[in-house]
Amino acid sequence: MTIALLVEQLINGLQQGLMLFLMAAGVTLVFGIMRLINLAHGSMFMLAAYVAVAVFAATDSYLLAFIVALAGISVLAMLLELAIFRPLYARGHLDQLLASFGLVLVFNEIAVMVWGREPLYLSIPPLLSGQVEILPGVPYPVYRLAVSALAIAAGLGLWLILSRTRLGMQMRGGAERREVMEAMGVNIRAIATMVFGIGACLAGVAGLMTAPIMPVQSGMGDPILILTLVVMIIGGVGSLRGALIAALIVGVVDTFGRILLPQLIGLNAGSALSNMVIYVLMAVVLVIRPTGLVRSAT
Amino acid sequence: MTRDLRWPAFVLLAATAFALPFIGDSYIVQLATRMLIFGMAALGIDFFLAYVGQLSLGHTIFLASGAYLTALLTMAGLESALLVWPIVLLGVALLALAAGMLALRTGGLYFIMITLAFTQMLFFFLQSQRGLGGDEGFSVPQRNTLPLLDLSDPRNLYLLVLVLLLGVIGLIAWIRATPFGAAIEACRDNAQRLSAMGLDPYGYRLSGFVFSAVIVGLAGILYTNNTLYLTPALSGWYLSGELLMMVILGGSGSLLGPVLGAALFVLLQEQLSHITPHWMAGLGALLVARVMLMKDGFWNVLARRLGGDDSHS
Amino acid sequence: MTAILETRALRKSFGGLVVTRDVDLTLEEGETHALIGPNGAGKTSLVNLLSGTLSPTAGDVLLAGEIITRLPSHRRARRGLARTFQISTLFDSFTAEKSLVLALLARQGHCYRLGRMAGFSCLRDEARRLLDLVGLTGRNLVPTASMSHGEHRQLELALALAASPKVMLLDEPMAGLGGEETAKMIELLRSLRGRYTILLVEHDMDAVFALADRISVLAEGRLIATGSPADIRSNAGVRQAYFGDDDGD
């Protein structure tokens, strides 16, 4: 394996890690405040990609496609919170999980009804097609760099919201000391709605990052959702820092596993194992640290 | 309080089930076999949910491993059910022991996520097996054989599945009446008290996990014998969700609830798919509606009426 | 007199917060030893350290001369350490009798048994005797969830007694009881005096002075005094630390 390939794959891995982090951040925020795992988070990822494809097809504007997709998905998530999840906070995990599972089935089928079973593709903006040399002799697609920049920007935006705004302070407070916040007159319910919106927006960014490199099709969000949960398990459920570290590790390990294993142990066994590498990683982490790499504050 | 009508209802249902192969055509018999097999799997999952008190999204691992092991052994030339089935159940139990020892070190939502990840892991493993047809799956040449009972006749297979299902129902009822079952339910109610009494909750949770997995594994064995065709989707998390949906349609924590829920689910799936190719949306909406609008499954609601007050049948 | 339960320089901290500071506590065999102290003094933390619900940052716990510091709660319970909880910790879906039969079976160290629960008729008789003892006569088939708070406190005690323990840690057995119920509970505990070694955590000073052979006082996680009820009543340090800024409830 050449240095050039190594560098290229490392960046690919980190990029996948960033995408997973954006997904995990949304699930973690909702989990932190409402103690709920929303399986339909993967549907937000999928719907954002679909909406972007559709809006682009209609308007030929990437900017408009991105804005409509992100705004639409955030509003949808807030409506879901109000209509479906809010009445379920007082119920057990089973009801919450199954309601969100029901939503996954509904959204996947709606995608089929509206956009059909054939996968769609979002073409790469001409401005970002082409390649640049990131190191001498290592060409890299401009688009992928732009996507990484977008992910980092979204991550920074989240960090700014959490650390610099009143809402962010309340979100962090709500995750740690719910009763105290409520006693102080903070409206936890309104915050929960906002958190669903912000989480879905991040999932939307992840979906938009992926749309040009992966076929957009019904159910595309579901494997990503499970990868996201693996990231959270490895990182320590409830911890954003843990999610970031674990997401980058999972992204890199997954990417290199897919390339190295078939070379090391033969094509058949290698490709069989490469899909499972991160699950093995998860199992190892569970043996050593059952509560994940980073102990959560909550 | 009115008279307890739950036993008469149970006897009536069982009698109908036994009469079915003699009055229904082969389509009905096959549909009913499917209902009973999923009913058994739902029952196994509900044992863990209702009595051990934890939610697992990973029990399709045991459905799939039971089914695949049966298929592989059969294709390797072992045909006798009396030989294959115990081996498969043992294999499933060992797998459950390993998975349980890892996953049960945690609890609650963490546990749910880990079990979900485990099923995905098995899914990818099965999908990547080129020899087993990858995504497309593969067909199994024949059913297992039993002395005296010809399983190639669908009616005989149906009756066997029915008897085994009743056996599992009886087994669960019996376990619940023993100190072992009481300890399992005690750690659901209050693990702290259980350890203050000198009992280690982990051991009871783990054995409850293995027991429920073996029931689901038996359903997997029967699944292979019924459909003679396996795909990796058997280990997918959709099926995990659907099995839980069967449980809550009928009602958790009762012996008939999951079985009747499974029957209703299979029937709905069958009927909806005749009406529209988008039947998944209908099932999803039904699931959301059941969770939002009803406090319990239909059998539990009915059983409370039949029995006066208590929900446990 | 021999020490049956002992702590040596026992310490527990959560980050910077020290809840138990180098506590040396000794329970003599057969005594009723009260543990008092203002709210937040660390009484329940100490009980949790003794029972194994918490593990200490430093120091040791000894039961009958053997170090049990690293044993999990269920192993300590098997060695004869029983406890009640300040907030009732019961099997809500069980009847009182079923809970007690399970507790009696647990004395053998495991419940991997597949006979019928209802078949253990001698244990059911024993369970009923325990229910009679704590004042729950005739309540054996009532589900725990539909019992009153007072009955929950009585059942807590019955479950601890079912283990035939060497030592019982009673964490505020009178918590939330009315006047008459408290009087009954005091009477009940008085009847157990001398038969069991008891560590009694209690807020009710009348109960403490009526029942205790010795009293230990905890303030800010530190053991500030141990002595007979008369000693404690006259101890100036105790008065200041405890009665001084707290009217003793």
Automatic annotation (TrEMBL), chain A:
GO terms for cellular component: plasma membrane. The keyword DNA damage does not apply. It comes from Chelatococcus asaccharovorans. GO terms for molecular function: transmembrane transporter activity. Belongs to the binding-protein-dependent transport system permease family. LivHM subfamily. It is a multi-pass membrane protein. InterPro entries: ABC_transp_permease, BCAA_transport_permease. It comes from the Bacteria. This is Branched-chain amino acid transport system permease protein. The chain crosses the membrane at residues 14-32, 39-57, 63-85, 97-116, 142-162, 186-212, 224-253, 265-288. Keywords: Amino-acid transport, Cell membrane, Membrane, Transmembrane, Transmembrane helix, Transport. It is found in: Cell membrane. GO terms for biological process: amino acid transport.
UniProtKB/TrEMBL annotation, chain B:
CDD domains: TM_PBP1_LivM_like. This is Amino acid/amide ABC transporter membrane protein 2 (HAAT family). It is a multi-pass membrane protein. It is found in: Cell membrane. The chain crosses the membrane at residues 35-53, 60-78, 84-104, 109-126, 157-175, 202-223, 243-268, 275-293. The keyword Cell membrane applies. Coiled coil: none annotated. Keywords: Cell membrane, Membrane, Transmembrane, Transmembrane helix. GO terms for cellular component: plasma membrane. One of its GO terms (molecular function) is branched-chain amino acid transmembrane transporter activity. InterPro entries: ABC_transp_permease (IPR001851), LivM-like (IPR043428). It comes from Chelatococcus asaccharovorans.
From TrEMBL, chain C:
PROSITE patterns: ABC_TRANSPORTER_2 (PS50893). The keyword ATP-binding applies. InterPro entries: AAA+_ATPase, ABC_AA/LPS_Transport, ABC_transporter-like_ATP-bd, BCA_ABC_TP_C, P-loop_NTPase. GO terms for cellular component: plasma membrane. SUPFAM superfamilies: P-loop containing nucleoside triphosphate hydrolases. The keyword Nucleotide-binding applies. One of its GO terms (molecular function) is ATP hydrolysis activity. Residues 5-245 form the ABC transporter domain. CDD domains: ABC_Mj1267_LivG_branched. Keywords: ATP-binding, Nucleotide-binding, Transport. This is Amino acid/amide ABC transporter ATP-binding protein 1 (HAAT family). It comes from Chelatococcus asaccharovorans.
